[in-house]
């Protein structure tokens, strides 16, 4: 089945494939938002009448989501007993993940069609202003869906990558708000007092987004503390993640891939320079 991504994207509102004044104006607005807040949202990026097809695609593969439960601080680092208990490096929270690996999104996938649409990556790259920008070569992680269920969510954290590109597909019945504190730290200043204030609930430092199905979000999360509030209700929250990297041909490490997806492929072992029997029983 041949899928045309342009049939799903509201190209009248978002003419990302048409190099002209309308696209330039759209990009200027996104760049301004990203420079100011580290966050830009294209509301209704997917046509509302096509959303049920995306939900159905996620429903079909939800059973393949790999669930991972951990406790983590906002930096994904080990505890620091030498610091005060209130320090951000010592603030640990429950984190639950369920990711559907990318190899469940094949040539019949709407999400893959959007990801591989020739106009999509150059548009995202132009919005971010990135020079080195490539589709992720990891066969388990280039296009994935995060599945979050009742009681789940993402606690406060900084991303380890510079940016994320996500598409909201289905919200939970309750909860699931995206909260963030833009530009809270810099490459030279961790601003631990500011981080501690956010963790303590300082509303003046927190912005809240209630993303709706069909919204595309471009977010610079390395320097903006953020979380997804706890979910409630029987309806799972579906968010697609389109992955891009600065180094062409990059794949995940075997350890991180096993943690997120519950398995690895030969390419992960080969790129890590390990023997196949070193990590595969």
Describe this structure in words.
- The radius of gyration is 19 Å and the shape is globular.
- The longest helix is centred in the N-terminal third of the chain and has 17 residues, at 21-37.
- The protein has a single domain, classed as Jelly Rolls (Sandwich).
- Helix content is 24%, strand content 22%.
- It has a seven-stranded antiparallel beta sheet with strand order 1-10-7-12-5-3-2. Strands 6-11-8-9 form a four-stranded antiparallel beta sheet, with helices on one face.
- The two termini are 37 Å apart.
- It has helices spanning 21-37, 51-61, 110-116, 120-128, 192-199, 254-261, 266-272, and strands at 39-42, 66-72, 93-100, 134-135, 143-148, 154-157, 164-170, 178-181, 207-209, 216-219, 225-228, 237-242, 244-245.
- The mean pLDDT is 94.
- It is of the alpha+beta class.
- It has seven helices and 13 strands.
- Helix 1 (21-37) packs across helix 4 (120-128).
Summarize the structure.
With 281 residues, this protein is an alpha+beta fold. 24% of the residues lie in helices and 22% in strands.
CATH class: Mainly Beta
Structural category: alpha+beta
Q: Give the amount of beta strand, in percent.
A: 15-25%
Number of domains: 1
CATH topology: Jelly Rolls
How do the strands line up in the largest sheet? 1-10-7-12-5-3-2
Low-confidence stretches: none
- Count the DSSP helices: 7
Distance between the termini: 37 Å
- Quote the average pLDDT: 94
Biggest sheet overview = 7 strands, antiparallel
* Strand and helix order: HEHEEHHEEEEEHEEEEEHH
Tell me the helix content.
Answer: 10-25%
CATH superfamily: q2cbj1_9rhob like domain
Radius of gyration from CA coordinates: 19 Å
């Amino acid at each position: 089945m041949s899928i045309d991504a342009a049939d799903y994207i509201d190209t009248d509102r978002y003419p990302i494939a048409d190099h002209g004044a309308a696209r330039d104006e759209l990009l200027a607005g996104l760049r301004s938002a990203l420079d100011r807040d580290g966050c830009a949202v294209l509301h209704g990026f997917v046509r509302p009448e096509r959303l049920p097809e995306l939900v159905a695609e996620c429903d079909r593969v939800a059973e393949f989501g790999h669930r991972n439960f951990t406790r983590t601080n906002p930096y994904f680092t080990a505890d620091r007993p030498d610091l005060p208990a209130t320090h951000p490096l010592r603030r640990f929270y429950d984190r639950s993940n369920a990711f559907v690996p990318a190899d469940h999104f094949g040539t019949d996938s709407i999400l893959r069609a959007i990801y591989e649409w020739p106009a999509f990556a150059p548009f995202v790259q132009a919005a971010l202003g990135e020079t080195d920008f490539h589709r992720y070569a990891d066969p388990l992680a280039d296009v994935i869906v995060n599945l979050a269920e009742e009681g789940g969510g993402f606690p406060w954290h900084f991303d380890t990558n510079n940016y994320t590109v996500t598409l909201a597909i289905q919200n939970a019945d309750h909860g699931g708000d995206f909260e963030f504190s833009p530009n809270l730290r810099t490459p030279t200043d961790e601003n631990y007092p500011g981080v501690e204030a956010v963790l303590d609930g300082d509303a003046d430092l927190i912005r809240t987004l209630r993303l709706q199905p069909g919204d595309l979000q471009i977010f610079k999360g390395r320097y903006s503390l953020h979380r997804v509030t706890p979910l409630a209700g029987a309806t799972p929250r579906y968010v697609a993640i389109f992955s891009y990297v600065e180094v062409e041909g990059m794949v995940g490490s075997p350890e991180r891939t096993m943690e997120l997806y519950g398995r690895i492929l030969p390419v992960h072992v080969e790129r890590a320079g390990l023997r196949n029997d070193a990590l595969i029983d």
